[in-house]
Specification:
It is a single chain. This protein is an alpha/beta fold and 210 residues long. The protein is 31% helix and 25% strand. Strands 1, 2, 3, 4, 5, 6, 7 and 8 form an eight-stranded mixed sheet that branches. It is globular. The N terminus is likely disordered.
């Protein structure tokens, strides 16, 4: 895949410029009530029931952060684009949320501070996924979980990270891995899709576990 050869395919994207239209994509802005409800239902399954500390990496304009906040979670969002962060702060104004400009691969936060690290469509574009996953696991408290939404896009020159590769990278780092296929749920994307889209929920070992 593109990320295996050390090249970041999004390195030249001006995300500050993209921020003005970023939410126009149905699964970015979640403006359609059906799309929003579909993502809210998934997050209800993936996130803890009790109020938790959630780190949303590559948070963009904060759409998933908002859904998590609405469920009572305290959210910290990180994105490389200052303009994206400005929009996220405006979207969650008055809520229990903090947004920081920073690199998702090495976010400007402390270790073992979070119950959940939530990342959507970011890992595939990073040059060393194995190292990044180790870094993200270090941000979690014992018993915390990674929630990773990824995929493989395109047919002529596909980019992304296949589900089997991601689960293989995670297995040495976590206590359990759950894979959910998302391609057949058109409600999430606002349209039918034919490429590979999935989520992985991976839990760290709880304190006292062997």
């Amino acid at each position: 895949m593109t990320s295996d050869n050390g090249i970041n395919p999004e390195a030249d994207v001006d995300w500050d410029a993209q921020s003005a239209t970023f939410d126009d994509e149905p699964d970015h802005g979640l403006r359609d009530p059906g799309v929003r409800a579909a993502w809210a239902a998934r997050l209800e399954e993936w996130l803890p029931r009790a109020a938790s500390d959630v780190l949303d990496l590559g948070c963009g304009t904060g759409s998933l952060s908002l859904l998590a906040s609405e469920r009572g979670h305290h959210v910290t969002g990180v994105d490389f684009s200052p303009r994206m962060i400005d929009l996220a702060r405006a979207k969650l104004a008055g809520r229990d949320a903090v947004f920081l400009v920073g690199d998702a691969a090495a976010p400007p936060v402390g270790e073992q501070r979070f119950d959940v690290v939530l990342v959507r469509h970011v890992l595939w574009a990073l040059p060393d996924p194995a190292r990044v996953l180790r870094q993200w696991c270090g941000l979690l408290r014992p018993g915390g979980r990674l929630v990773l939404v990824e995929g493989v896009w395109g047919t002529v020159s596909p980019v992304g990270i296949p589900a089997d590769r991601l689960t293989a990278l995670l297995e040495p780092l976590v206590a359990d891995v759950r894979l959910e296929r998302l391609s057949d749920d058109a409600r999430l994307w606002g349209r039918e899709v034919a490429d590979e889209r999935y989520a992985v929920v991976a839990g760290l070992k709880a304190p006292g576990s062997p």
